[in-house]
């Protein structure tokens, strides 16, 4: 097994292309107007068109209206949906696309209950909790809050950087890692050198910490 990598909040076609060529499995497009990483439909189409084959395109929404989501899905080739607000499972699964549900980890959250609640999700994305900020805060949360036996694949986010992602993989053993602000030059623009170092650290961590499956 290896840790999958998602670079989120891409806003420039060439930066998305470079992220994919450097080894990112997925790129995230933010359709949340209040985010500094927000992209329009036209820009999203340009970004997707710049990608090489076999790269998963993820659309991130925060409490968006169903009609607007459907409009975007008709216009942009999207493989996977990511819901980062308070969307209930019934809302998330109505678009006939695979989805992941972001859960902001804070005191009192029952991640096993959330996994059961979102049983139709393909995975849970665990992120930091910051009041009034649905994601991209650059803050990490206490990884000790993550149960060892969650019945869903874990996608770890929240404050990941090239400097700490290897430790995160060692401690959490997630299915995938998701980074945005940790590989930026400034908000909304990615730093390809940081992306390269982040991906290299993920690969290094996999080599040290992953245990081969028994034959």
Could you say which structural class the secondary elements and strand pairing correspond to? alpha/beta
Question: What portion of residues is helical?
Answer: 25-40%
End-to-end distance, in Å? 13 Å
- List the strand order in the largest sheet: 1-2-3-4-5-6-7-8
The helix/strand series, from N terminus to C terminus, equals EHEHEHEHEHEEHEEEH
CATH topology: TIM Barrel
Task: Specify the number of helices.
Answer: 7
Largest sheet: 8 strands, parallel, barrel
Q: Overall pLDDT, averaged?
A: 92
Which homologous superfamily in CATH is the superfamily? Answer: Aldolase class I
Low-confidence stretches: 211-215
Strand content: 15-25%
Top CATH class: Alpha Beta
CATH architectural category: Alpha-Beta Barrel
- Gross morphology is globular
Please count the beta strands (DSSP E, at least 2 residues each).
10
Summary of the model, kept short:
The chain has 215 residues and is α/β, with parallel strands linked by helices. The chain has one domain (4-209): Aldolase class I (TIM Barrel).
Task: Draw up the topology in text.
Layout: E1 4-8, H1 13-22, E2 26-30, H2 41-49, E3 56-61, H3 66-75, E4 80-83, H4 89-92, E5 99-105, H5 111-117, E6 123-128, E7 154-156, H6 165-172, E8 176-179, E9 184-186, E10 189-190, H7 192-209
Parallel strand pairs: 1-2, 1-8, 2-3, 3-4, 4-5, 5-6, 6-7, 7-8
Antiparallel strand pairs: 9-10
Helix pairs in contact: 1-2, 1-7, 6-7
